Every structure is written in structure tokens, then in C-alpha cells.
Model the fold of this input.
Amino acid sequence: MPKNTICVWYDKDAEAAARFYAKTFPDSAVGAITRAPGDYPAGKEGDVLVVEFTVAGIPCIGLNGGPEVKHNIAFSFQIATDDQEETDRYWNAIVGNGGQESACGWCSDKWGVNWQITPRVLMDALAAGGDEAKRAFKAMMTMRKIDVAAIEKARRG
Done:
């Protein structure tokens, strides 16, 4: 186990979420699955308790902790994309599998985990500063899924 691992709380579907992430994102996989050695408040002996997984190279564990804790936008995975095709592929996989669109490149999956599907062109524009950043930011603020061509146009003025 790595020294630092992100723990993501799920009601009861950590394994299903991990398998979805592994098939959706490159450099992702499902690792060890630990079953509860005894009954606990949200489940019983033998239920999947912890799932080790990797999302785009980041080690995580999914904890089936029950319905008491809900995800919010304070935590998200940010996936950098190289073009519109990649942006569309990830966005559509998350939103099209029971997720929800939000604003400015944010969406959430059907388990409530938040994602930022962020084209590199947007981050480059913001890092450039000045009028270029202002134009790209203004364009982004009108979007749900980021439109790479619109950001590129805004960058040029």
C-alpha cells in the first residue's frame, strides 16, 4: 500500500465504482478487495468493505461506509484532456452512466463523486494571464462540458 492513498467513501458500491473507473480511464485498475470480517452498522460479515483501485495513476481506496456521508464538490478528481474527443469521451462516460452535468467542466458520477474534465488548452489559457485568460475564463463560465474550439477562439480574441 502506498504511503498516501485517497480514500473515497461510498454507500455500498465501491467495487462497482472502481470497476467503472478502471474501464473508463487509462492507467486505472482494480486491486485488492477486502470483505468485512464481521457485521458492522452499514453491512454484514462478508460484504465488500474496502476496494483498492487506481484512477489515472492515483492510488485510492473505496470504503463502503454506508449512506451517512455524502459526496460534495469540495472533493473532485481532475482529469486533464488533450482535445475535444478525449473531453467528450470522459464526460459522456460519466454523465451517460447515471451522472450529472454541472458547470465549467464539472460533473458527478452516479455515485456522487465529482469530476473536473479539463482540457489542457483551458489551463494553458488561464496560466497565460492577462486578456487571454480573461477571455477564456469568460467563455468557460458559460459552459457545462468545456468546448475546446470555443476556448481556443476566446484565447485568440
In short: The beta strands are 6-10, 29-35, 48-55, 58-64, 76-81, 100-101, 106-108, 114-119. The chain has five helices and eight strands. Helices lie at 14-24, 84-95, 120-128, 130-140, 148-156. The radius of gyration is 18 Å.
